[in-house]
Amino acid sequence: MASTHEHTVSEIRLPEGSAWHKAWQYFLAVGAVGLAGSAFGYHSDPKRFGFAWVFALTTVLMIGLGSLFFVVVQHVVGAYWSVTVRRIAEMVMSGLPSIVVLVIPLLVVAPRVYSWMGEHGEHGEHAAAATHTEHGGTAHDHGGTAHDHGGAAHDHADVSSPVALAHAEHEAEEALEAGIVDGKKAYLNKGGFYGRAAGYVAVWSVLALLYMRWSIKQDEDGDLAHTNAARSLAPIALILFGLTLTFAGIDWLMSLDPLWYSTIFGVYLFAMGMVSFFATLILLITGLRASGILVKEISVEHLHDVGKFQFGFLSFWAYIAFSQFFLIYYASIPEEVTFFHKRWTLDPGADHAWAKVTVVLIALHFIVPFIFMMSRNIKRNTSLLPVGAVLLLATHVIEVYWIVLPNFGDLSPALVDVSALLACVGIFFGVGLKSLTVHSLIAAKDPRIERALSFEQV
Amino acid sequence: MGYHEPLTEIGEFPLVQPGTTMRVVTETVAGVTENPAPKGWWMLFAVALSFLGIFGGTIGYLFWRGVGIWGNNNPVYWGWDITNFVWWVGIGHAGTLISAVLFLFRQKWRTAINRFAEAMTIFAVICALIFPGIHVGRPWLAYYMFPLPNQMGIWPNFKSPLLWDLFAVGTYFTVSLLFWYVGLIPDFATLRDRSKTQVRRVVYGLLAFGWRGSNRHWQNYERAYLILAALSTPLVLSVHSVVSFDFATSLEPGWHTTIFPPYFVAGAVFSGFAMVMTLLLVTRQVFKLEHIVTMKHLDLMNKIMLVTGSLVGYAYAMEFFTAWYSGNTYERYVFMNRAFGPYAWAYWAMVSCNVISPQFYWFKSLRQNIPLMFVISIVINIGMWFERFVIIVTSLHRDFLPGSWGYFHATIFDFCTYLGTFGVFFTLFLLFIRWVPMIAIAEVKATLPEADPHFSAAGTGSHASHGSHGSHGEAHGAAAGVHAAAHGVAE
Q1: Where are the domains positioned within chain A?
Q2: Is 0.90 exceeded by the ipTM?
């Protein structure tokens, strides 16, 4: 047996019967209600449900992956300040195995959500949703002279007329797009999609379980070997994390529009995950402290550091999101710029709803929280810091919605979105919070715990 | 935060070699500027001066004849000039990362290398700035780079990333210089107080700005240092992001890709660390600084190179994958052409140097092998030069019009200009080492065990002696010896 480290720190457990002790049951109940609503949503419109589920799953998945990254990085760098908050992060992380269940609806509805999986003609959807409705559903005959554009106002006998030309172009464009999507078959195919999904979920669950296990085992025996094991695996874990996050992002989000691509997308999702995770962590810490739990162990000094990370990653997120927007906007290449056109339609007569959501995101996901959280005093204020965290979590939900739903069509929030979100949040955090009821709230036998407890900002 | 012995069982380590006292730190670092220079320094200085001569000659000829003496052609309008510019700017990044970002992350091991790396930043940015200045070919028109109207009243295009570059690099240089200088003030005062000649006393006295080490001075100093660190951190990201915009805002396949900003930043930090490593290994040997810049520092730097090298590898892979995934014929062609076209040698040199060579650092024994890390640091620098060359030249040489495809041949003047900037860099660097404290004396001292109020010589060797949180409050003000005694009773 490897060496141990002498300890004077005792474990802290959630008081039995407290609201926090029962929280996991409330969450699971909410999840059950959400599941029922989702089942109804699936029954009435499976495609719409599919988009709602992709949105809900991504929302919690990003938080979960953020926690996994945080825990692994603490081991990689051998940080000591974070030992007291690590168990709370591990609690969020221990919700990750629930993705094994939560991913099933996605796999079931995938052929309806991802046009590249479906039959021919479906992947022209985004084009069809645009301004070509005046052509109606009538038969088009491009070879002959007779054209029926479905309206008396458009009586053109000549192929060179603007409408006919536009029409022919549209058809040609659809054929071209179908060809491009066809050219991606080596990656975008059903077998690959399901196989990779199984791989991602397996990697996340195994990593989460391993890191949780080492931490819990150390609570029992105080063996330093657990710290070393966690540290040894950490670099590999980070590589696996980076690859699975990137490719899951491509499979589940980017390929919603099979024509669009952006090399920074994986980094963007990573930034998003970190922002939402730190917001969650702040809410959990301040929530526990408000109930008189961990008040001494997780001091204002620790909260200050978590707040700094929140602020830092918020800035990083803004940097990455802006880079993606700015480079696409500046070059304005048709095949890339569609992403922002969908979310920033200013054509007269068109629906501007998504553009409004974009404005909300810029203001409330960046400008307001950035200014709010800059101050040291806010980061050390246990009642104001969570206000910023709530704002960032709310805008995280809106942001994921803004990434997923424009691929369905105009902004049309539905009850199924709420149901799916409740189902995913309820189940994910239900599983996570359960782990808090059975383990200590701090890693009492971690070799760095004393240093963490006496940590002060200098 | 009480004093604690490093727990070696979980890989912790002392920041300077045990036994290195405050006196040793002062003597060693200040001694470099006071004692006659070792032979090694003179030899290096002679080499640096001859390269500086090459630089002067080449630039003189360039101004006489114009940029036609370089290999730039149609369609490769940007060749070694911009490659060298991006390479040198990138090298500067490690200095800021070490001094500012690692400071904010409370990575105290940085103190042994930060001064050194910051100096490197400043000299590298100077070398970088030479290239935009000379690549216009007509030095009397260098003001075209600045936001000034020309003789016909036309302003430079504010929508051009080239103009943003001027602001970005200019700001970066200014803030880096301030940061470096603020850190130097207490150390200049140390040199002043140790001066034996009137000249040294006056010069270092002026440089030290009247520093007397009072409590007030330290308080202002710490605050200024923190603010400058906070300002420098976004600059690390912004400078190379704006440099990447020079390429990524264009429509050129191979240049226009969204991952460029973070990818350029990671690459910059990567190459900067490699350059710090190359310089550090030589200096550490010549001036015998092994007890301050320990093997552990080198090990940690190698780990950062492994991380940033792998990030760069991720970016290469994403670019390649997305070029294929995009279904865009031009994107696909550019990347296939890079890997298998006439410049395949440059592409694979880049991949082997940048992605494969740092993978040796997965093994601790190799991370602590000095000859190997010297070689790898140089290999990485070569690789990062090739990265910029590959991006710039391979994307341009076969553009949208096959009729104007071409190949870039560097001339002797391209080589000499590049080598010449090494002369500029090393001349400045060697002068810095000789006359300025190259290790942050005050900062290293603060990381010594005896600098901690909780330190006790009696407690050394016992892990159980570090401050537990319960007794922390009471023990805080107590003298070190008393603190240890209190612990003995408690246990």
Answers
A1: 23-117+188-453, 124-178
A2: no
